[in-house]
Amino acid sequence: MAVLELSGVSKHFGAIQALTDVSLSLHAGEVVGLMGDNGAGKSTLVKIVAGNYPPSDGTLAMEGRPLAFHKPADARGEGIEVVYQDLALCDNLSAAENVYLGRELRRGIGPFKILDYRAMYQRAGELFAELKSETRPRDLVRRMSGGQRQAVAIARTRLADPKIVLMDEPTAAISVRQITEVLSLIRRLRDHGIAVVLISHRMPDVFAVADRIVVLRRGVKVADKPIAQSSPEEVTGLITGAIETA
Questions:
Q1: Which DSSP state fits 142?
Q2: CA-CA distance, 10 to 7, in Å (whole number)?
């Protein structure tokens, strides 16, 4: 059974049709590469799954249960986490403090509670070790490379024990070495049985880690197939419209 099933999902904003009749399934331990040109509908689709927008038509189901999200907290409650392109990290805080941002651990009795830094640093360290990242809990984010920042954002999703992680352009504007690090982090999520949706314009990255590729063009799904049965040339043709469907 699919972890998440979208059936006939459409979304319009007034006269603008952003998505038309898109059906999509996500399975545990699978990386799905979501590709398309600017304005293809990728962000709209992700925001529907993340609870930012309700669909205009169509349905969502989690492991067979119908879903109706009214806000992002509803999606997080179902185990859906998002790593946005800007990462939403606080530069002046440590890696561990960013991992626990908004979910801080406290100790004490009744109203007399203080932040439990020891527990947060320990658990953050365990998450970085699990992800095989060199990031350390006490490192300040402002001194980190792009790859290390991604590790902090991904560790934050792991804290919630998610079923699905949506990643928006995680390898944009970072070095080749850091890209390798981030792709390894994505593989770690997959190895832990998490479904990952990788939104990216970088064809080599998608073909390096994705099990399946989905292509949107002008709000319509024009391909959904195993990555082994496609090629960068075919995907380029699907994105540009040189190839109608695959």
A1: G
A2: 9
Helix residue ranges, H only, 160-220:
176-191, 203-209
- Its pTM stands at 0.90
Mutual orientation of helices 146-159 and 176-191 as an angle, nearest 10°? 20
- Residue 148 burial (C-beta neighbours within 10 Å; 0-12, 13-18, 19+): buried
Contact status, residue 198 vs residue 31, Cβ threshold 8 Å = yes
The one-character DSSP state at 41 is S
Identify whether the C-beta of residue 167 lies closer than 8 Å to the C-beta of residue 83.
yes
What digits encode the pLDDT tens for the residues 154-187?
999 988 889 999 999 888 878 888 899 889 999 9
Complete domains list, the chain, with CATH = 4-91+161-240 (3.40.50.300)
> For the sheet containing 16-26, what is the strand order?
16-26, 4-13, 57-62, 65-67
In sequence order, the 6+-apart residues with CB closer than 8 A to the CB of 10 are 17, 19, 20, 21, 22, 55, 56, 57, 58
Helical (H) or strand (E) element with 7: strand 4-13
Write the pLDDT tens digit of every residue in 207-228. Answer: 999 999 999 999 999 999 999 9
How many residues in total does the chain contain? 246
Secondary structure, 3-state, 206-237: HHHHCCEEEEEECCEEEEEEEHHHCCHHHHHH
Q: Indicate the SS3 state at residue 2.
A: coil
Specify whether the CB–CB gap between 55 and 11 falls below 8 A: yes
Question: Cα–Cα distance between 44 and 240 in angstroms, integer?
Answer: 19
